[in-house]
Amino acid sequence: MKKYWRESLLLLIVLASFVGMMLQEPMHQSLAYHNFADQRPWLGIPNFLNVASNLLFLFVGVVGLIFCRQSRPAEAPWSWTIFFVGVAVVALGSGYYHWGPSSGTLVWDRLPMTIGFMG
Q1: N or C: which end of the chain has fewer CB within 10 A?
Q2: Whole-angstrom Cα distance, residue 119 to residue 117?
Q3: Which domain holds residue 31?
Q4: CA 28 to CA 46: how far, in whole Å?
């Protein structure tokens, strides 16, 4: 056990943090969070500029994936691919959220970001 005390301590900290988090009450998102600066519809799309601005994420994600496919960076190629997949998927998730902002659709805004962060 002496040999693995650091790993055991790290595991204990992770488990204690998980148990502590599960014992807490859920944190509710304020409804005011969903009030964005531009709420004007255009071409039948509500919150048009908030939704359309996500096309930039899609562009960067696709260009990054093309770059990764063509050049295959020598260092950590999969992490770059996962990062750019996450950036591209942010366009879909965030666009969906901004189309109809609510606490129920907020997860689709934040979930793709975690994919990018993993990369």
Answers
A1: N
A2: 5
A3: 2-118
A4: 25
